[in-house]
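In response to a reviewer's request, we include the raw inputs and outputs for one of the modeled complexes. The two entities were modeled together in a single run.
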Amino acid sequence: MVLTFPAEAIDEPITYTLIKEYDVMINILNADITHGREGNLLIEMSGEETNVREALVYLDNKQIQISPVIKTILFRESRCIHCGACASVCFSGALDMDTATRELKFSPERCIACELCIKACPLQLFELNFGVN
Amino acid sequence: MVLTAEEVSEMGRSRSAREIAEKVDVVTTGTFSPMCSSGVFINVGHSDPPIRMEKATLNGVPVFTGLAAVDLYIGATEAHPENPAYGGAHVIEELLEGKDVELIAHAKGTDCYPLKDIRTTINRENINDMIMFNPRNAYQNYPAAVNSSRQIKYTYMGSLLPRMGNANYSTSGELSPLLNDPQLRTIGVGTRIFLGGTTGYVSWFGTQFKTDTETNAHGVPVSNAAALAVIGDAKAMRPDFIKAAYFEKYGVSIFIGIGIPIPLLDEEMAARVMIRNDQITTRILDYGDPGKPELGRVTYAELQSGEITLNHKKIRTASLSSLHRARIIADLLKKELTEGRFLLAEPVEPFPHRKDLNPLIIR
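The model returned the following structure tokens for the whole complex.
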């Protein structure tokens, strides 16, 4: 999710409070925060359900806007050589090798963004993309 | 008549070897696979004042300088010291694409080569020569890889998922050059081939060439056996058929496109090229165990179907070799042969009939 901080909340140790007071796990993926201005923090948050719910209430009280994020995989398809190295690690079936034409087919709607293809592609044609819903 | 190896395999279902030998003159093969033992010699020309390069990098990737003053060898798998995902293969690809590449070289300076340091850019047009010479390419068959361990393994056979989550293989099966002439009757020193989008030659047998690999009932080796050393003018090559690759936590490699025409000398040769994927076997090796034990055997028909069964478990398969592009190569070669633009060359020297491999003993 992306946390959007109003300018006045920048000075507060929000992440610290989330971890110490609500016992949630925070994985910071991207941060763009400057003093005196609005800032964004891209995080993954996990923990017990009640803790997570209370943490979200805390963020809401601090007037921090929460936007869920959709992880998507970007595929530079035009450079693909159709080897298929990605296909055997793709369990959602988004990447599939046509057994007749031996061409790789990518169906983004089936992708669950497990990211295994990123490391499997020898041409490094897959990238993770974070989009705010 | 010229046909591709896949077309002739299909034809073999309804015609005899004798009929095919009478009808077909040449069969074209193709492969587009990662082939680590590859590289390019370049001669960058002499500067004024001249330098006898002792240490050099291209886009930060170290290159071999132990050849006279300005002859360099770019090894495909050499990695950038700070960026392991970028290496010699990428430099080669950028040179083929016509891009500028930064050359930095150092020397001690001599009376005849006084310059000690140089920093400049080179590209395909301003260098004198760019000769691809690959000591080991086009392996005749290669084992498929699985991983029985509980952790993902990152190998030159790609990402191998734990508990045999997938199986990766790397040849083009019935289209693969050396599987269509398993006894190397038509392939030897001097054979003219398709290499990286242009004409190349078989220059020698490949390193680690061996003849003692077990063969199956159809006469093809069930594992890696013969290989080729090949040479060609990299200035004329096309980036479509030479592609840099990086295998996670393994390193840099390079996809090389090779096509070999096989003349059907007689009925015996016709019987060889008729071989089908269901008649070509390979070993399944376990990369999750340090000794890489063999767990079973499969045919390329099974591997190419997308799923194999091993110990009652269904395993998804994937190729590291692009059959799609191998077909393009075989088709291109067929077209060029048919139009008379590609001429067959008889080998000037056959390959050894017996050659085995020495291990490296740690003394």
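As requested, we also summarize the result in words. Chain A has a mean pLDDT of 88. The CA atoms of residues 89 and 116 of chain A lie 6 Å apart.
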